[in-house]
Amino acid sequence: MKIAVLGAGAMGCLYGGLLSIGDNEVWLIDIWKEHVNRINEKGLIIEDENGKKIIKNVQATIDTNDIGIVDLILVFVKSTITDKALKPVKNIIGENTLILTLQNGLGNIEKIQSVVGKKNIIAGTTSHGSTLLEPARIYHAGKGTTVIGEIDRENTERIQNLKEIFTKCKIETVITNNVLGVIWDKLLVNVGINAITALTELRNGELLDFKETEELLEIAVEEGINVSKAKKIILINEDPIEHTKKVCRLTTSNKSSMLQDIINKRKTEIEMINGAIVKEGERQGIKTPINLALTNLIKIKERN
């Protein structure tokens, strides 16, 4: 399969590197010139608790004119720029090119749909964790399951084929007939963890060490649950609050992606996470004061 990864950050490099171990032709697309050049010159280094491996049969580029039409595009850019990042790479999108978003937050499907047809889009979530250490070097911090599905809930041949390709490359993958429920499940976890850790500079597990942060987590997720019910989203987890706390325990020493963004003075995805709960709540006539407060406080930190 010919695969392009749009956004060669920590997660893009992880998936691109793993998929290139098989018989796939993989292209990493990014605007960071030093990163791209080092991958092409020395290979991509993936480290984990067992050591490191150097992936040399992956190609990186800034210019997509040399790639040609691909079978699959994995979108791993920041949710805030999904549509802006897709428009310049329309030259590699053919009639049957699949575009898979495994990004955080809400709105990515709609942003992709503004550039290509809905029939080309599939969606999902990932439980993997990865950190970019330096150009062409990442650390695979946590392994998990990749969940993918058709937006219209069908179980198609193309989604089955994609699962087989991912599985052959040692990416544990399952298919869901409720991909929107899966996306909302992960959204609620991010709603409960990301902004609070970014504001307090606590690691995930430390949120449960303080009554105040645990209470904020509970209320933020509860507001999200209320909005999801109004939208008639069928959630996967029966108790999203407890599930979020479980994720905190399982990733106890992790710095959330939003905390990393704040530390590195990067723009966060707050509008697609807590901000999305606020916007959807307004549409449904549901008040979400804690998520509004968290959203506004993160915006202030971004300005500073």
Automatic annotation (TrEMBL):
<comment type="function">
    <text>Catalyzes the NADPH-dependent reduction of ketopantoate into pantoic acid.</text>
</comment>
<feature type="domain" description="Ketopantoate reductase C-terminal">
    <location>
        <begin position="178"/>
        <end position="302"/>
    </location>
</feature>
<protein>
    <recommendedName>
        <fullName>2-dehydropantoate 2-reductase</fullName>
        <ecNumber>1.1.1.169</ecNumber>
    </recommendedName>
</protein>
<dbReference type="Pfam" id="PF02558">
    <property type="entry name" value="ApbA"/>
</dbReference>
<dbReference type="InterPro" id="IPR013332">
    <property type="entry name" value="KPR_N"/>
</dbReference>
<dbReference type="GO" id="GO:0005737">
    <property type="term" value="C:cytoplasm"/>
</dbReference>
<dbReference type="InterPro" id="IPR050838">
    <property type="entry name" value="Ketopantoate_reductase"/>
</dbReference>
<keyword id="KW-0521">NADP</keyword>
<comment type="pathway">
    <text>Cofactor biosynthesis; (R)-pantothenate biosynthesis; (R)-pantoate from 3-methyl-2-oxobutanoate: step 2/2.</text>
</comment>
<dbReference type="InterPro" id="IPR003710">
    <property type="entry name" value="ApbA"/>
</dbReference>
<feature type="domain" description="Ketopantoate reductase N-terminal">
    <location>
        <begin position="3"/>
        <end position="152"/>
    </location>
</feature>
<dbReference type="InterPro" id="IPR013328">
    <property type="entry name" value="6PGD_dom2"/>
</dbReference>
<keyword id="KW-0560">Oxidoreductase</keyword>
<dbReference type="InterPro" id="IPR036291">
    <property type="entry name" value="NAD(P)-bd_dom_sf"/>
</dbReference>
<dbReference type="Pfam" id="PF08546">
    <property type="entry name" value="ApbA_C"/>
</dbReference>
<dbReference type="InterPro" id="IPR013752">
    <property type="entry name" value="KPA_reductase"/>
</dbReference>
<keyword id="KW-0566">Pantothenate biosynthesis</keyword>
<dbReference type="GO" id="GO:0015940">
    <property type="term" value="P:pantothenate biosynthetic process"/>
</dbReference>
<comment type="similarity">
    <text>Belongs to the ketopantoate reductase family.</text>
</comment>
<dbReference type="GO" id="GO:0050661">
    <property type="term" value="F:NADP binding"/>
</dbReference>
<dbReference type="InterPro" id="IPR008927">
    <property type="entry name" value="6-PGluconate_DH-like_C_sf"/>
</dbReference>
<dbReference type="GO" id="GO:0008677">
    <property type="term" value="F:2-dehydropantoate 2-reductase activity"/>
</dbReference>
